[in-house]
């Protein structure tokens, strides 16, 4: 049983809190079922699970506006679902079906939903970090007050693209929030083996003149929400970017093919004692906002939602051959007969 460690005063009302708990449960179940489908070879390509990190996506995206931009790396299911993607569009994408969010052509690493300003999962480590600066630049150029939030892993801290983009974001005071989800691992390489400085808030914000650089316990969903809200307020007020080191942990291997030999069962067990979903359930019980019956009902609803998404995905058609060149490149480069 997890113990509540959050002291944060509620920044949300009951309805919002229950919605966040539900979203975390949806992400967890979506991925557990995806893992099963992967093992049954229903899902092709790479598949990176987010289990253990749910509070990071739900808490941060949950305080943003619908017109703000969200962009992430390849561990993207959690961010997409937190942004409101329908599980059936996500699951169909996992199975490579035409009704998937990227028409079945992107797969697990390339969820995308422009009408929710979810600007995608990106497979090349660090590649989307300059894109986030570009989106934030566009907001500033247009004179609107939209914010861009960009998620990446601790491994991306070493990419040159990150440092080039951070320099421009700081220089031009762009309205962007950069969130490193520090789950301690870059594939099987521990942070202390790829970074001389372990306090990422020192590497992320200060060298580039960001308005703030803060570390947060990202298993505490409300702490994550509060930190993000403050960052968004600063960005909208023209104060420029914030760097957030979201301290978290992933339960699964890097991808489905990772046997996790770099980690002990004890380490995993210890991490699970601070499971973000269990922690939040305890908090909400203590506030009297949920009880056994409410939780059971919520779990049953989430199960049904994911069951339905899988049934839809299994039955949906594959993309037709005529889709082979669509959405791949701009029209002049499509081969002509
Ligand atoms: C430029 C580039 N180099 C290497 C890879 C192979 N690769 C895929 S994921 C990964 C590790 C990244 O770890 P991290 O950024 O910490 O993210 P996490 O998987 O923990 O979410 C690597 C090296 C890649 N996709 N792109």
UniProtKB/TrEMBL annotation:
Cited Pfam families: E1_dh (PF00676)
Gene that this polypeptide is encoded by: acoA
InterPro entries: DH_E1 (IPR001017), PDH_E1_Alpha_Subunit (IPR050642), Pyrv_DH_E1_asu_subgrp-y (IPR017597), THDP-binding (IPR029061)
Keywords: Oxidoreductase, Pyruvate, Thiamine pyrophosphate
Superkingdom per UniProt: Bacteria
Protein name: Pyruvate dehydrogenase E1 component subunit alpha
Protein species of origin: Tautonia plasticadhaerens
Keyword Oxidoreductase among UniProt keywords: yes
GO molecular function annotations of the record: pyruvate dehydrogenase (acetyl-transferring) activity
SUPFAM superfamilies in UniProt: Thiamin diphosphate-binding fold (THDP-binding)
Presence of keyword Transferase: no
NCBIfam families: PDH_E1_alph_y
Catalytic activity annotation: N(6)-[(R)-lipoyl]-L-lysyl-[protein] + pyruvate + H(+) = N(6)-[(R)-S(8)-acetyldihydrolipoyl]-L-lysyl-[protein] + CO2
């Amino acid at each position: 049983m997890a113990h509540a460690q959050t002291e944060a005063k509620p920044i949300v009302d009951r309805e919002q809190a229950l919605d966040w708990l539900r979203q975390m449960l949806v992400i967890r179940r979506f991925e557990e079922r995806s893992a099963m489908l992967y093992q049954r070879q229903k899902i092709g390509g790479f598949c990176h699970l987010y289990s253990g990190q749910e509070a990071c996506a739900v808490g941060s995206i949950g305080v943003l506006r619908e017109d703000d931009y969200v962009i992430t790396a390849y561990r993207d299911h959690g961010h997409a679902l937190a942004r409101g993607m329908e599980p059936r569009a996500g699951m169909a994408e996992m199975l490579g079906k035409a009704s998937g969010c990227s028409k079945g052509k992107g797969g697990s690493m390339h969820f995308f939903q422009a009408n929710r300003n979810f600007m995608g999962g990106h497979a090349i480590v660090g590649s989307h970090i300059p894109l986030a600066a570009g989106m934030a630049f566009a907001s500033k150029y247009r004179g609107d007050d939209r914010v861009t939030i960009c998620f990446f892993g601790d491994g991306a801290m070493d990419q040159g693209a990150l440092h080039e983009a951070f320099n421009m974001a700081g220089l031009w005071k762009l309205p962007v929030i950069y969130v490193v989800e520090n789950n301690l691992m870059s594939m099987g390489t521990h942070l202390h083996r790829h970074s001389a400085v372990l306090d990422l808030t020192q590497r992320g914000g200060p060298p580039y003149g960001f308005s703030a650089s803060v570390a947060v316990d990202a298993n505490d969903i409300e702490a994550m929400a509060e930190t993000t809200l403050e960052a968004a307020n600063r960005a909208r007020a023209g104060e420029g970017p914030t760097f957030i080191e979201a301290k978290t942990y992933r339960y699964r291997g890097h991808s489905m093919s990772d046997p996790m030999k770099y980690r002990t069962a004890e380490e995993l067990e210890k991490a699970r004692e601070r499971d973000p979903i269990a922690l939040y359930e305890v908090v909400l019980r203590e506030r009297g906002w949920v009880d056994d019956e409410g939780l059971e009902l919520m779990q049953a609803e989430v199960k049904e939602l994911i069951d339905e998404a899988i049934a839809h995905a299994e039955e949906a058609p594959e993309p037709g051959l005529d889709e082979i060149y669509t959405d791949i490149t701009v029209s002049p480069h499509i081969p002509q007969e």
